[in-house]
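An instance noted here:
***
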Amino acid sequence: MSTVKRVVKNSGFLLINSIATKIISFFILLYVARYLGPADYGKYSFAFAFIYFFSFIPDLGIHQILVREAAKDEKAMDKLIGNATVVKSFLSVLAFLLCCLTISITDYPLSTKNAVYAASLGLLAISLNGFGIVYEVKLRMDYSVIFSVTGRLFFLISILYLIQHNLDLNLFIIVTVVADFTHNILMTVFSRRFVKPKFKIEYGLVKKILLEALPIAVSTVFFMIYFRIDTVMLSFLTNDTDVGFYTAAYRLTEALTFIPSVLMVSIYPVMSKYFNEKNKAFNYIYTISFKLLFASGLLLATVITFLSENIILGIYGFEYYDSIAALQVLIWATSFMFVNQLLSSTYIASGNQNVMAKISAFAALLNIGLNLALIPLYSYTGASIATLITEFLVMVYGIHWIDKKIVHKNLYKEIISPLIGVCIISIFMLISRSYANIAPLSIISILMFTAILYNIGWVGSEDIALFKKILPKRDG
C-alpha cells in the first residue's frame, strides 16, 4: 500500500475514533455539567486544570522525539519504547508528588484540595503512553478506536451509575482517572503485537532523547500555561461559578481540535521522514494541510458563532446561559488552533524545536498579561478574549517564519479566498435568520462556502490530482 493511501486509511480510523469518542464525551460532558451545576463543575474543572500544569513532567517532550526517531528507523523502536517507559515511570511519580505537595500548601478549602489529590492520580497513567508511538509509526490507529472507545464507554457507564446513586464530586474525578488508565493499559498490552520493548537502560540513548526533547519540554510548559492558566486565574480572581461558565464553553471548543489532530497524527511521521530525506513532498504536504485546516477552522468558527445560543442552551440548559458569550469568542481562537497544530508539528518535524520553545514562551507571557488585564474587567469573557489574541498572534508569526525559513512559499495569499467565503455566508445568515431556522441555514452556508472555494479556483489542479492518487483504481 502506498504511503498516501496508508496516511488516508490511518486518518480515516482516526476520524472514526475521534467522532466516536467525541460523541460519547459529549454525553459525559452533558451529564456531568448538568448534575454538578456551575459551581461544582467549576471545582471539577479546576482540579484537572491544576494537575495539567504537572502533566508535562512525565513526558518532557519525549513522545514526539520518539515518533520522529522511530519513523526514521523502526528497528530501534523496541529500545526507544523501553528506555522511554522507564524514564516516564520515574517522572510520573515525581509529578504526582509535586502536584500533591503544591496544592497542600495553598489556601484552597479542603474540598478543593481533595479534588486535586484525586485528580493527580491520573499523572501516573502518563508513564504508559510511550507505547502509543507504535500505532503512530506503523500507521495502525485502528487499534486506537478500540482503546479510546472502550475507555470512554467505561467512563460514561460509571458517570451514569454515580448520578443514579447521587454520589459526590470526588467519585466523578476518580472515574475520570480510571478511564485514562483503562485506555493506556489497553494501549500497552496490544502493543506487543508489533514490538517487544527492551527495558535495559542505555544512558547514551536516554541522554540523546532528553536533549532533543528539552526544547519541546520547555515549549510544552509555556503552552500549558497559556492553555490552562485562564481557568486557574479565573478561580483566583473570580469564583467557581464563573469558572464553570467558562469551562462549559471551553470544553466544547476544545473538543473540536480533534479535527486537526486527526490529520496531524497521520502526517507528522511522514513529514519527519520526508524532511530527513530532503524530499520536496514535505512542502506539498505542508501547503495542502495549511489550506485544509485554515478553511475548515474559519468555516467552523463562523457557523458556530451563529449557533452558539442553540448549542449552549441545548446542551447545558438555561443555567449556563452566560456561557454563550464565551463560546462565541473561544470558537475563533479554536479556528486559529487548527493552523497552530500544523505549525507545531512542522517545527518539530524539521528539527526547529527551539523556535517553538521561544514562541510558546512569548505566548504564555502574553496570555498571562492579557488575563491579568481582562479578567478583572470582563471575567470569563475577558479570559476568552485573551485566548483569542494569543492564538491569533502565534498563528501569524508561525506562518511567516515557516514560509520564510522552511517552505519558501508565501501562503498568506491562500487565506484570501476562505475569508471572502465566510464574509458571504455571514451576510447570508444575518439576512436569512429572521425568516428561517438557523440550523438548516448553517447547512446551506457550509455548502455555499464549499461551492465558493471551488468556483473561484481555490481548490487547484494539484489538489484534484492528489485525490485521484488516493482513490483506488477500478479493474477493467
Observations:
- The two ends are 20 Å apart (CA to CA).
- The chain has two domains: 1-201, 213-476.
